[in-house]
Design goal:
The chain has 284 residues and is α+β, with helices and mostly antiparallel strands. The chain is built from nine helices and ten strands. Helix content is 37%, strand content 14%. Strands 4, 5, 6, 7, 8 and 10 form a six-stranded mixed beta sheet that branches. A four-stranded antiparallel beta sheet has the order 2-1-3-9, with helices on one face.
Length: 284
């Protein structure tokens, strides 16, 4: 089938060249971020994509749900629902885990030096500030596993910057251990949040406000019908943004949230990663 790439933007031909090689792709807008969900999919009201961690019911033809929109289907990539995204796209991204790959994202020279000393040589791709080291095999993604180092594989996306140089090496235990060690540290370390400004007062006014917020968060997780992983992360993010900077949030509160998430099938490691990623997103 011939696909009308000439009217769909300069990045579509790249996407169509990757898809037959088993690399799931999606368009990125300016700022290296996916296109936002359409109105029907805002807040995962649709249940999420079927290829997300928790199978959903979304049949939306648009490139919604970030990394979960990545596809190898040329008919989807060239569909009218994706046409506007390709016309406005600033880059092509791909889902490493969906391609059976793990990326060690090295963000600076210090991280690259560390990788040369601690990780097996593998295929490398130059980035704006550092390098991507690609390994054969998929694993859990995690940010900031050490200074200047992120792991991108399942449930993540990376900008396509070319095929890279060098042969692929099998995913080593040294990379898996980076995520395991970070998760263990998050689980065992006390959960601390910044206290209120010196001389200030707690904005919650009464303990009831916090108690109600935690109860509502538990309920939101418990009632999630799909896309549980995304719901857990969004809930953690909401709790931290509202209650995480005044010093009122305690380990007992976070334990309740973790318990609710684990009752829905989330592992302790996923809970710890989601909490750590929410803390990082808020700059706390």
């Amino acid at each position: 089938m011939t696909h009308p790439t000439h009217i769909r933007g300069e990045h579509l031909p790249t996407a169509l060249s990757l898809a037959p090689r088993g690399v799931p792709v999606l368009p990125l807008r300016a700022g290296k971020v996916p296109f936002g969900n359409c109105p029907a999919c805002v807040g995962n009201a649709c249940g999420g994509r079927p290829n997300m961690k928790t199978p959903g019911a979304c049949v939306c033809p648009a490139p919604c749900h970030g990394w979960a929109a990545a596809t190898t289907d040329p008919d989807i990539l060239t569909s009218p629902a994706w046409a506007r995204a390709w016309r406005e796209a600033a880059a092509v991204a791909y889902h490493p885990g969906g391609a059976g790959l793990t990326i060690v994202d090295l963000d600076n020279e210090q991280a690259i030096t560390w990788a040369h000393a601690n990780l097996p040589v593998t295929r490398t791709v130059a980035t704006t500030r550092g390098e991507h080291w690609l390994y054969q095999g998929a694993m859990t993604s995690a940010n900031r596993v050490r200074p200047g180092v992120d792991i991108k594989s399942t449930m993540a996306y990376a900008r396509w910057l070319g095929p890279g140089t060098g042969p692929l090496t099998a995913l080593p235990d040294a990379v898996r251990d980076l995520v395991l060690k970070k998760s263990a540290a998050v689980r065992t370390a006390p959960v601390t949040v910044p206290g209120p400004p010196r001389g200030g007062t707690c904005p919650h006014r009464t303990p009831t406000y916090l108690a109600r917020g935690i109860a509502m968060a538990e309920q939101r997780i418990t009632e999630a019908a799909g896309a549980v992983h995304n719901t857990v992360f969004a809930t953690f993010l909401a709790v931290l943004s509202t209650h995480g900077r005044c010093g009122c949030l305690t380990e007992a509160h976070t334990a309740r949230l973790f318990a609710a998430a684990q009752a829905k099938g989330e592992s302790a490691r996923h809970c710890a990663d989601a909490w750590a990623n929410a803390v990082h997103r808020l700059g706390m």
